[in-house]
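In the design runs reported in the main text, the only information available to the sequence generator was the tokenized backbone. The following block is the verbatim input for one such run; it is reproduced so that readers can re-run the procedure and compare outputs position by position.
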């Protein structure tokens, strides 16, 4: 990974002899995105993809994301 210029985003275990450096800001942002996908999957309509067209499916994702954002405030 180092040869390709890929940096670690997840912190290493506490008992690792040579710790891997990571960017805590990027890790926090990644965690938020993963939580958002987890909350979106809780919505049955999006999880099972009832909508046939891509436009309707994306619209349902946007509405669900707005509702989740609004409820968390």
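Verbatim output:
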């Amino acid at each position: 990974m180092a040869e390709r210029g890929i940096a670690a985003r997840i912190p290493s275990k506490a008992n690792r002899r040579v710790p891997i450096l990571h960017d805590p800001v990027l890790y926090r942002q990644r965690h938020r995105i993963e939580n958002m996908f987890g909350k979106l999957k809780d919505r049955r309509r999006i999880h099972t993809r009832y909508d046939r067209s891509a436009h309707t499916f994306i619209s349902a994702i946007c509405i669900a994301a707005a509702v989740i954002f609004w409820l968390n405030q």
